[in-house]
Design goal:
The protein is globular, with a radius of gyration of 25 Å. The relative contact order is 0.11. 39% of the residues lie in helices and 10% in strands. It is built from 20 helices and 12 strands.
């Protein structure tokens, strides 16, 4: 450690008082330690990752990072480890961030993990350093148009169980008011399909003039982009924009907040610009037309999806729908709205559960379920396709089976309108 250098004037006058010699001695700042910043410089030289270097270690991010509540993590800690010479490209830290945006909400220096993580992950993917299960999701998406690995020919098969007409644009051959972009999990996952059927019946009851792309639709790709596969995202976006441009419609309505984010912010950069709403926004504007005939005498709490709430500022539309359900009581958890926990599925986290298990005391979905139970909820309402399977698994793994049901808001609305016969309550 270097010694402090003294500054001493022969005579100094302070407030009219002459101070000579050692009485006016001051010391120049000294470096407590010197760092080799070459590793940090490598990261901040990546386009999009520059702001990691802005961190001045205030620690505000650590207090709000959901991953830190189940592990040892935050942008501050990532900066410090990189400053000390640990390569972020080679570190597990690179894949633990769910891009929930809570850190950016409080950061006074605007260290932007929403740009940093995709940028650095892209370099890791190019170097073949991504976790195996994430690469599998990428490969499935590239090959089949969905990360689940299902046949693209089966993308619209769920419509056969809808019980109402679900027009496919290529067959309808006519303009529609609403182009419903269904997305992958609502088209393929068993619980996702149940929510899609519920929403289709609501649209039918409201006499919405709508259509879907069916087999012409591919994954919107936003989570793949955030996980580092920008090239794959661009390929998917180009395809979807080409398919959508074939048809005439007034607006897009999406099931998935991640697709909402893509259509709102990323697709316009590639020439795909249309008015877009999340389905809760669309339905909340039609609230007067929703004919409720059944009570839901349950305590319902709501989990704000990161990509609908913090990323895009929509907190009210889902709550308007829940508050309108007859007989239901909406109970807010301690972490709600802009301070909501993350389900763990964003930024590629949906496909990294096996990887993240080694670096956390519990899954984020389990922590959230425990909070819902703590607040006495009977139903955990969600409005993102990632969340129903994540939270239903967490209900079982936390020993809360039979105590808490996980329901998409579309299912709750459809049930109260008498459009579906029963709720899939806690098993």
């Amino acid at each position: 450690m270097q010694k402090a250098k003294a500054i001493e004037l022969d005579v100094a006058v302070v407030d009219g008082v002459e101070l000579s010699g050692s009485w006016n001695r001051m010391f120049v700042p000294r470096a407590i330690s010197e760092y080799d910043l070459s590793v940090l410089d490598e990261i901040t030289s990546i386009t999009g990752a520059e702001s990691l270097g802005y961190c001045y270690q205030c620690g505000k991010c650590t207090a709000v990072c959901p991953v830190d509540t189940v592990g040892d993590y935050s942008p501050r800690k990532i900066f410090r480890r990189t400053q000390l010479g640990a390569s972020l490209i080679d570190s597990p830290d690179l894949w633990l961030c769910t891009t929930c945006r809570n850190c950016l909400r409080v950061c006074p220096k605007e260290v932007n993990m929403i740009k940093i993580m995709p940028a650095v992950r892209e370099q890791a993917v190019l170097q073949g350093k991504a976790p195996e299960e994430l690469l599998t999701a990428f490969e499935n998406t590239a090959r089949y148009g969905n990360p689940i690995g299902e046949s693209p020919r089966k993308r619209a098969e769920w419509t056969k169980s809808a019980g109402v007409p679900v027009p496919v644009m290529s067959q309808k051959k006519a303009p529609v008011d609403v182009l419903w972009f269904v997305e992958c999990y609502p088209a393929y996952h068993p619980r996702g399909k149940e929510a899609s059927i519920a929403l289709a019946r609501i649209f039918d009851a409201l006499h919405v003039d709508f259509g879907i792309l069916g087999t012409e639709e591919k994954c919107a790709g936003d989570s793949q982009r955030m996980a580092g596969e920008r090239g794959l995202f661009e390929m998917l976006a180009e395809h979807n924009i080409k398919m959508l441009s074939k048809y005439t419609f007034n607006q897009i309505v999406v099931t998935d907040p991640h697709a909402y984010n893509a259509f709102l912010h990323e697709y316009p950069k590639m020439g795909g610009e249309w008015p877009v709403q999340h389905y809760t926004q669309y339905l909340s504007q039609r609230l007067a037309d929703l004919a409720f005939v059944r009570d839901i005498p349950k305590r319902i709490t709501f989990h704000d999806p990161c990509y609908l709430g913090r990323h895009n500022g929509e907190y009210e539309a889902p709550r308007r729908l829940l508050n309108a359900l007859p007989g239901a009581e909406l109970v807010e958890m301690g972490h709600c709205r802009e301070t909501s926990y993350c389900c763990g599925g964003g930024g590629g986290g949906m496909w990294l559960d096996s990887f993240t298990r080694d670096y956390s005391s519990q899954r984020l979905s389990e922590k959230r379920v425990r909070e819902a139970v703590e607040y006495g909820a009977d139903i955990l309402a969600v409005t993102c396709p990632y969340e129903v399977p994540r939270f239903e698994d967490a209900v079982k793994s936390t020993g809360n089976a039979g105590k808490l049901a996980v329901m998409d808001i579309a299912e709750l609305v459809a049930y109260s309108m008498g459009l579906i016969d029963e709720l899939v309550m806690a098993h």
